[in-house]
Design brief:
Shape: elongated
Largest sheet: 6 strands, antiparallel
Oligomer: single chain
Helix content: 55-70%
Number of helices: 20
Distance between the termini: 23 Å
Length: 555
């Protein structure tokens, strides 16, 4: 609820301060006094697009301040998202410079203008004669119908559509991967076969190097074995073992007399035993044969291994990991056909589920449309539009797959026939500004609008009506004021009489400048203002005004 509004240097308003209460407040005054300017001020404080024309001529800037009671859960959630204090009240401030630029504050903290707009979207319902574009939009018309539909049915369709989209996405991804991976699969298979033929093991390169080097040095190995054997055991001029025997024979007779000779004798015996084990190894070295085929195989295998490691920039262990990964991916590709069949089946089941739930929603919407049209009828009659016929055209696009959405497959259009016998046409093609205002008022009165903001502003909603219809408009607005704070700009005394509070808007002269002033009217002042609205302040019109006030306050 808006509890206070301060306006400075805004249009013809030089310095205005108003305090508001709950219920219905009506603004009245002579034509051109500035009633619509007040609506602009309310829009501006809630972030409406700034205009340099709003700044009073000669002033550097216009300033607007508003105080709002913060009781809306949605508003508190918005403030929490902005890490702002949710304690009430909220202090909104907007400054508009003469060049059209503006700044905004919330509780004394500078904030983006968008935040004021978001607060306005929650708190303010600006219902002007030219503020009905939303009602022309198919999405908004659908919301009016869906507000009377079971929320579970709407949610079921949304979940079913999301499941269908997910299933289609998975199938598309698989098909895309199959198309892209045909060449890649052939490459992986070729590489896998090449690496498999190498029988790769860790440290394979080192093993192959040893084999190659051994094959390349067969002659040297044989020569080294023969030479070593001759020196060790076969040489004519004293080989190692014969010399060792001579040394042992020299010290053995005296070993018992000296510990050093005894130890040396024992060690010479051990060395002789070890030397006797060497000849078989040297004989093997002499007998080694050159296997050119094995050497070539080892060289080819080593070259292929090194090329593979260079190509993939890994060692033997890395090649083994690559082979494992390719094997898994090729296995998945091999089973892709079965996966695709399963996904096709999944998509079909998701489509069937969506269709079933969308059909249920269509039936519920048809029932909601009948309910909405029936609920509108008495309000249209009371507001002087007994001849207007309203229907909602519901088209189920179940055969047009592209028309399926999370909200169902229904296409809804509000249709009007302004007069009996006239054909139905789309709302935007038929309704005049006054008719549209009263249609919106009827929709609000019958509860078609969900999550209605706590502050409703009606500007010239009573254009083109009078008499008993005007009383009906006033009655509806007053009834709405019992649940919301309602501000009404009106020129009809019937509507003004139904308000709990009345503010007069006057245009005066001060210091050779025109100024718009606002004054909260007391009961006797209200009677005089309503008498003026009736056509003149005399005893007869004043008495009539008092009777109208008495009637309006009893509604």
């Amino acid at each position: 609820m808006l509890t206070e509004l301060k306006v400075r240097q805004f249009g013809l308003m030089q310095d205005v301060r108003l305090e508001f209460s709950s219920g219905m407040t009506v603004f009245t005054g002579e034509t051109g006094a500035g009633k619509s300017l007040l609506v602009d001020a309310l829009g501006a404080v809630f972030g409406a697009r700034a205009s340099a024309d709003w700044v009073r001529h000669g002033a550097e800037r216009a300033e607007l301040n508003a105080v709002i009671e913060n009781k809306d859960v949605r508003l508190q959630r918005l403030l929490e998202e902005q890490d702002m204090d949710t304690d009430e009240p909220l202090f909104l401030r907007r400054v508009i410079n003469a060049d059209g630029r503006s700044r905004a504050w919330l509780n004394g903290v500078p904030v983006p203008l968008k935040l004021l707009q978001q607060i306005g979207g929650i708190c303010l319902d600006l219902h002007g004669q030219h503020e009905h574009q939303g009602l022309m939009q198919p999405e908004f018309q659908q919301q009016l119908v869906d507000s009377r539909v079971d929320a579970d049915a709407l949610q079921d369709v949304r979940f079913a559509f999301e499941s269908l989209q997910q299933a289609r996405k998975q199938l598309h991804q698989l098909q895309h991967q199959q198309g892209e991976s045909a060449g890649q699969a052939a490459w992986m298979r070729s590489e896998f076969e090449k690496l498999s033929s190498l029988d790769i093991q860790e440290e394979l390169e080192e093993s192959l190097i040893s084999q190659v080097e051994a094959g390349q040095n067969v002659a040297q190995i044989q020569q080294a074995g023969a030479q070593a054997l001759m020196l060790l055991d076969e040489g004519d001029e004293g080989n190692v073992r014969s010399l060792l025997a001579q040394a042992s024979h020299a010290i053995e007779p005296l070993a018992a007399y000296h510990s050093g000779l005894e130890s040396a004798s024992d060690l010479l015996a051990q060395v002789d035993a070890l030397l006797s084990e060497i000849p078989p190894y040297l004989n093997d070295a002499q007998e080694v044969a050159l296997d050119m085929e094995a050497l070539q195989t080892a060289e080819d295998r080593l070259a292929a291994l090194r090329e593979a490691m260079r190509r993939h920039d890994v060692n033997e262990a890395g090649l083994l990991l690559l082979m494992k990964d390719w094997q898994q991916r090729l296995s998945l590709l091999d089973t892709a056909e079965w996966d695709e069949d399963a996904l096709h089946e999944h998509v079909q089941k998701a489509e069937q589920d969506y269709c079933a739930k969308a059909k249920v929603l269509s039936v519920l919407r048809a029932e909601a449309i009948d309910d909405l049209v029936a609920a509108l009828r008495p309000y249209l009659d009371r507001l002087g539009m007994a001849g207007m016929q309203v229907k909602v055209e519901l088209v189920c696009l179940q055969d047009q797959n592209k028309a399926w959405h999370a909200s169902g497959w229904d296409d809804m259009t509000f249709m009007l026939s302004s007069n009996p016998g006239e054909p139905f046409r789309a709302l935007a093609q038929v309704a005049s500004g006054g008719e549209l205002s009263r249609l919106v008022l009827s929709l609000k009165a019958c509860g078609a609008f969900i999550h209605a903001p706590a502050i409703a502003v009606f500007d010239e909603v009573d254009v083109g009506i009078g008499g008993e219809t005007a009383w009906c408009v006033g009655e509806l607005l007053a009834a709405m004021g019992k649940e919301r704070q309602v501000f009404v700009v009106s020129h009809l005394p019937q509507v003004a009489s139904c308000a709990q509070h009345q503010i007069s808007i006057l245009k005066t002269q001060r210091d050779d400048r025109t100024i718009t002033d606002l004054a909260v009217l007391q009961p006797d002042e209200r009677a005089a203002e309503i008498a003026r609205m009736l056509g003149g302040v005399d005893a007869e019109s004043l008495e009539h005004a008092k009777q109208m006030l008495q009637k309006g306050q009893m509604i």
